[in-house]
């Protein structure tokens, strides 16, 4: 029970940090961390397919696309 509460608090904390962060790269990494923590919560709730999908798409693919877009946009500025 206490592990679930700690995971939930960490997930909410990383989500709030992603929302209010002024640096886009830090926000994208925090969003990936939030998705990874959500996947762990799904796995602990005995939903392995939802956890695998969230980990591969939410934490992996979407975060990677955000980080690539941020790095490409910064190269275009300078």
What does this structure look like?
- With 78 residues, the protein is mainly α.
- It has one domain (2-77).
- The protein is built from 3 helices and no strands.
- Helix 1 runs antiparallel to helix 2.
- The longest helix is centred in the C-terminal third of the chain and has 30 residues, at 48-77.
- It is flat, with a radius of gyration of 14 Å.
Structural class: mainly alpha
Count the beta strands: 0
What share of the residues lie within helices? Answer: over 70%
> Order of helices and strands, N to C?
HHH
Which of globular, elongated, flat, extended, rod-shaped describes the shape? Answer: flat
Mean model confidence by pLDDT = 91
How many discrete structural domains?
A: 1
Largest sheet features: none
Flag low-confidence runs: none
What's this entry about, in short?
With 78 residues, this protein is mostly helical. The chain is built from three helices and no strands.
